[in-house]
């Protein structure tokens, strides 16, 4: 996918006007490559956390922002194609990164607490059974009582979590207000992304449309 995306950017040189400028193409390639590298780094860290019992909030948010970088690059590429200035490009990139961060965090939330009336699907169960650490888990580790942290450590020391472990984990995270904490961070990321659009010069209607799209994407898990 990365290679195909690069080829598409190279084809921009065949376009008419400023969008075909080699500088614009180079900026687009740099943005794509940097975002791809960040996603790979985030994936590596995410996997490395599976065998760790003690993972912090900042570490999880760092992984989420790395995954969000790909959304940031996608938003920025549209601005590059339109020959926007650096200030506007920065606004679009921050918008996309915040959106991607919120989406990533919300995937973990919905895996632990599916929508009302729905059960966890195979992918969601797999994320938890493989001991993937979420923002809610990190919050409980940092803020839970000694007995809570000890029990979390016992659960995550298992090779594979079974359904009873997952149900117990969900109750623990609710009792430590970790679910509500994670939900608030998702909302914060969405609001930061929408606020970043202020520097783009878009009309109120266009900003509202992007804000609605952002919320829909975050919820599409």
What is the gist of this entry?
The chain is mostly helical.
Structure commentary:
The protein has 221 residues and is an all-alpha fold. The chain has a single domain (20-219), classed as Farnesyl Diphosphate Synthase (Orthogonal Bundle). The chain is 75% helix and 0% strand. It has 10 helices and no strands. The protein has helices at residues 2-10, 22-49, 57-81, 86-112, 122-129, 135-143, 146-156, 163-175, 178-196, 204-219.
Going by CATH, the architecture would be Orthogonal Bundle
The secondary-structure class comes to mainly alpha
How would you name the CATH homologous superfamily? Farnesyl Diphosphate Synthase
**Poorly predicted residue ranges:** none
**Oligomeric grouping of the chains:** single chain
Shape: elongated
Helicity, as a percent range: over 70%
Distance between the termini: 21 Å
Question: Proportion of β residues?
Answer: under 5%
């Amino acid at each position: 996918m990365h290679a195909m995306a690069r080829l598409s950017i190279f084809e921009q040189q065949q376009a008419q006007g400023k969008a075909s400028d080699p500088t614009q193409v180079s900026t687009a390639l740099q943005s794509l490559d940097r975002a791809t590298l960040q996603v790979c780094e985030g994936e590596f860290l995410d996997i490395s956390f599976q065998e760790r019992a003690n993972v912090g909030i900042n570490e999880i948010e760092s992984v989420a922002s790395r995954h969000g970088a790909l959304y940031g690059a996608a938003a920025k590429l549209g601005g590059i194609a339109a020959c926007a200035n650096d200030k506007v490009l920065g606004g679009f990139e921050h918008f996309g990164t915040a959106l991607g961060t919120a989406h990533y965090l919300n995937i973990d939330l919905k895996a632990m607490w599916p929508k009302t009336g729905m059960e966890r699907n195979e992918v969601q169960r797999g994320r938890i059974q493989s001991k993937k650490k979420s923002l809610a888990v990190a919050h409980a580790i940092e803020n839970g009582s000694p007995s809570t942290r000890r029990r979390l450590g016992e659960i995550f020391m298992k090779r594979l979590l079974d359904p009873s472990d997952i149900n117990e984990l969900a109750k623990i995270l609710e009792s430590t207000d970790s679910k509500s904490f994670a939900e608030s961070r998702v909302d914060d990321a969405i609001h930061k992304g929408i606020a970043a659009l202020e520097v783009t010069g878009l009309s109120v209607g266009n900003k509202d449309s992007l804000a609605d799209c952002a919320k829909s994407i975050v919820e599409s898990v």
